[in-house]
Design goal:
Layout lengths: L2 H13 L3 H34 L5 H12 L3 H12 L14 H25 L3 H9 L4 H11 L1 H16 L3 H7 L9 H11 L2 H27 L1
Helix pairs in contact: 1-11, 2-5, 2-8, 3-5, 4-5, 4-9, 5-8, 5-9, 6-7, 8-11, 10-11
């Protein structure tokens, strides 16, 4: 395939809203949004709790969180695959090769990142804010709300970073989803599959969409950092 004709055909596919391309994009966005939402509901409160309270083992917990950030996605996918396989602890649930399995994998990917960034946000807050809130009689829940109010943009950046991590990953989606057409085939697995077949138009179209979304995410993060 010649380079420029391939790019042109990919752009035509995008402009005519190719149904298969839209289906793949919908699966990617759906799975990533669900997994990021679940990771946010767990990661942000957990990060706030760890960051605002001193307890035995806190340093070890931070070390584990930071270590999980460096684990390759294929390793996480392999571990969850083992748990969801027929011989695994949750094999009887029949979740393997489904969008639910992909959500579980991406949730495991995003949660440590969102937790670690939320923890860092709490640790970097001005100590006078916590002291003032406690002096005014704030309880633990009210203190959390105060921290969230002061660090709302940093916490939002943590959530966006979590979404970016799972949206662009391929290892977990390929291993746990199985790249089933119309069911678990998302942008990254489709790019790998179509490229392997030598059919580059769809792969290039999806690659362009992935780059545009990544650009939008990064622009959003830049705006949040300025805030």
């Amino acid at each position: 395939m010649n380079f420029w004709p391939g790019i042109l055909n990919a752009l035509k596919m995008i402009l005519r809203f190719d149904p298969e391309m839209l289906r793949i994009c919908f699966i990617s966005v759906k799975v990533s949004l669900i997994s990021t939402t679940l990771a946010t509901l767990i990661g942000v409160p957990l990060g706030l709790l760890i960051g605002s309270k001193n307890f035995y083992g806190r340093g070890l917990l931070r070390l584990i969180l930071n270590s999980l950030l460096a684990v390759p996605t294929v390793v996480i996918g392999l571990f969850i695959y083992y748990l969801l396989s027929r011989q695994g602890a949750f094999g009887q649930l029949g979740l393997l090769y489904s969008q639910t399995a992909m959500v579980i994998g991406q949730f495991v990917l995003a949660t440590p990142l969102i937790t670690a960034l939320s923890l860092a946000a709490v640790e970097n807050i001005d100590p006078r804010i916590k002291l003032t809130a406690l002096t005014l009689g704030a309880n633990r829940w009210q203190l959390f709300l105060t921290i969230i109010s002061e660090k709302q943009y940093v916490l939002l950046a943590a959530v966006i970073a979590g979404f970016s991590r799972v949206f662009a990953e391929v290892g977990v989606s390929m291993i746990l989803g199985g790249n089933i057409k119309g069911v678990t085939r998302n942008i990254t697995t489709a790019i790998a599959f179509e490229t392997g077949k030598g059919e580059f138009e769809l792969a290039i179209a999806l690659g362009i969409i992935l780059l545009v979304i990544a650009l939008i995410i990064n622009l959003g993060l830049q705006l949040i950092r300025k805030k």
